[in-house]
Design goal:
With about 350 residues, the protein is of the alpha/beta class. The protein has helices at about 1-20, 85-90, 115-125, 140-150, 175-185, 185-200, 205-210, 225-235, 250-260, 295-305, 325-339; strands spanning about 40-45, 50-55, 65-70, 90-95, 135-140, 155-160, 285-290, 310-315.
């Protein structure tokens, strides 16, 4: 009698574990059960689609062509508050795109840090933007910029990493510095990033279970934001941002995979990068907010010290959302295009 009961319990536990660990299928745009496709998209060589949005001056009239890479839980429909006068004066054309699994871009189950650079390169080539272009990565969108600097540096005219993501297990990064920054995180975020790095197969369960708190930012904890960030959030809540409410094709393929890819084992560390502009024909910039509670400024400062060809900027009154203040956005563009 006990053997059948034990077998049933084991089978039940295995079934529960399988369901808890297995993420649901994404609702792919354009599929039978998925949302409709309403944005222009290009088809990549592997059959996936990337959705994009063009803004600024017309492409054929532009002097500067910039690819904007959105961050975590965002999309191509983010509102970049660059002044229209600056855009027209300098002749700036922007392309914003939904990274794989976000918005109306197809998921990529094989997504890696490296694949991010080649998605951008294909997007540029399909749109016939030209041989060289600029990239600006915001927060989590900065790791694709590192990927571009590593894998396609010959395609870049310049790069800016704004409040850039930091990896606490980067190769050849001082462990004491990374450990010190890591310990400043909320305990729930420490565990979330550990699991993403060491046990990504558990990540869906961790992010959906109810026993322990997981990622603070998805739980709506405002203590990780500065007063400046909270003020910007208040302004956002008072205005309707078109498209930003449709940024996920399933939380696993957008948010979860983004974290797992970013905290995976990298083939390189930032300090391994080689100056892509030895003749000063372009420039690379890191922008850090002094009041940013999310990103460890000491890690970004260390990178800029080890790589003196990176221009490092600290914004005294800047939080994590510093690029969404017009004065900062304009300063970032001027530095990138005129340095």
């Amino acid at each position: 009698m006990l053997v059948p009961i034990a077998a049933a319990l084991i089978a039940g536990l295995l079934g529960y574990a399988y369901q808890a660990l297995k993420p649901p299928l994404p609702k792919v745009c354009g599929s039978i059960d998925g949302p409709p496709v309403t944005s222009p998209r290009i088809k990549l060589s592997d059959g996936r689609h990337l959705a994009y949005r063009e803004t600024g001056v017309p492409r054929e009239e532009a002097k500067y062509k910039i690819i904007i890479i959105h961050g975590f839980d965002s999309s191509k429909d983010l509102n970049l508050p660059a002044s229209q006068e600056l855009i027209e004066e300098m002749g700036i054309y922007f392309v914003l795109f939904d990274r794989a699994g976000y918005g109306q871009s197809d998921p990529n189950p094989s997504r890696t840090v490296k694949s991010e650079a080649y998605d951008i390169q294909e997007l540029v080539d399909k749109l016939q933007i030209g041989l060289r272009f600029y990239v600006i990565g915001i927060s989590m969108g900065a790791y694709p910029v590192y990927s571009c600097l590593k894998y396609i540096p010959h395609r870049l005219s310049g790069a800016a990493l704004v409040v850039p993501f930091v990896h606490y297990w980067w190769p050849r990064f001082p462990s004491n510095l990374a450990s010190e920054a890591f310990k400043r995180l909320l305990v729930q975020d420490q565990w979330t990033f550990r699991i993403a790095h060491y046990a990504p197969w558990l990540f869906y369960w961790w992010m959906t279970q109810k026993w322990f708190p997981s990622l603070s930012i998805t739980a709506g904890k405002t203590e990780i934001l500065s007063e400046e960030d909270l003020e910007i959030l208040k302004r956002w809540s008072e205005t309707q941002t078109v498209g930003q409410d449709n940024i996920r094709q399933g939380v696993y393929e957008s948010l979860h995979r983004d974290i797992m890819v970013s905290y995976a084992n990298w083939e390189f560390g930032p300090t391994d990068l080689i100056n892509p502009f030895p003749k000063e024909e372009g420039s690379v910039h890191i922008w850090q907010g002094c009041k940013d509670k999310i990103i460890a400024s000491q890690m970004n400062r260390y990178i800029s010290e080890k790589l003196p060809w990176i221009h490092y900027h600290e914004v005294p009154d800047g939080g994590h959302f510093l690029i969404f203040e017009r004065k900062n956005c304009d300063a970032i563009l001027r530095a990138l295009l005129l340095t």
